[in-house]
Amino acid sequence: MVNITRSERMREVRRVLWIVLGLNLAVAVAKLAYGLITHSVAMTADGFHSLFDGSSNVIGLLGVALAARPPDEGHPYGHGKYETYASAAIGGMLVFAAWEVGKRAFERLVGGGAPPEVTTLSFVIMVVTMGINLTVTLYERRVGHRVGSDILLADASHTASDILVSAGVIGSLAAVQLGYPLADPIIGLLVALMIVRTAISVLARAEATFSDRARLDATEVCRAIADLDGVLGCHSVRTRGSLSEVFVDLHVEVAPDLSVAEGHVITRAVADRLKERFPKVVDVIVHLCPEGTRHEPS
């Protein structure tokens, strides 16, 4: 993750989401319109999935707008988790999309119906939109890792699931053209399962933030400050937060006869070193204790 300011990061995330929103809507309209015209369950389901991609971009923009607000009296640690809330909402929308896709496919599989009309244009639309989704996924994932954005990584996973869906739809169209009309709803069911898998990964990433899972290796944190003047030991390291905003607290062992002023200098040096070594660290709480003592957090 690059070391950029919070405002620069939020501006970059918003810019990416707006670009992706426009592309997702264009892809959704193309697949939905032609899927309905040709009566293809798989293609229509894929169009709905792309439409949910656009909806997730809107949720992401709202989440980022809330997350960008500065700390206040009611939120002294800032509003960064609103971005994670938005990514969790995207995971929930994926579950709903899987339900809609699976229901349509099951109804066609059980109830029958006219097979879809497969044309050359069907394949052209699917291949072009799949290429767009691949570009969007790589773009969002690259920027998401670079700026440490939960929402961009969640949205990239969402769009990546669309690539799998599109590949399945192309396979179903080919099978129908070869004389196997049941391939259309069967592929639709497989698509639903792939969407569920993506939803689980998105929700698991959000859970890591909500459950305050450790974000940094404690040994690496202690090693980063070991050479600072006055630091004689380090223990009880705790980290939490999102991919882009990590909060650290730790115990630093010092000489027992240090003055308050000397202790303050060490505390500042520790905080500055950790923010320098780990760019995603936004706040550090240092507890000073005499060398050789172990005051474990309660």
CATH superfamily of the largest domain: Cation efflux protein transmembrane domain
The CATH architecture of the largest domain: Up-down Bundle
What is the number of independent domains? 2
Terminal CA distance reads 32 Å
Classification by helices and strands: mainly alpha
- Mean of all residue-level pLDDT scores: 82
Q: Identify the strand order in the major beta sheet.
A: 1-2-3
Here the CATH topology of the largest domain equals Alpha-lytic protease prodomain-like
Please tally the β strands and state the result.
3
Please summarize the sheet with the most strands.
3 strands, mixed
Give a brief outline of the structure.
With 298 residues, the chain is mainly alpha-helical. Helix content is 67%, strand content 9%.
Describe the model.
This protein is mostly helical. It has two domains: 6-210, Cation efflux protein transmembrane domain (Alpha-lytic protease prodomain-like, Up-down Bundle); 218-290, Alpha-Beta Plaits (2-Layer Sandwich). The protein has helices at residues 6-38, 41-67, 81-111, 120-147, 150-177, 183-210, 218-225, 260-277, and strands at 233-241, 246-254, 281-290. Strands 1-2-3 form a three-stranded mixed sheet, covered by helices on one side. A hairpin with a 4-residue loop joins strand 1 and strand 2. The chain starts with 5 loop residues before the first helix and ends in an 8-residue tail after the last strand. The mean pLDDT is 82.
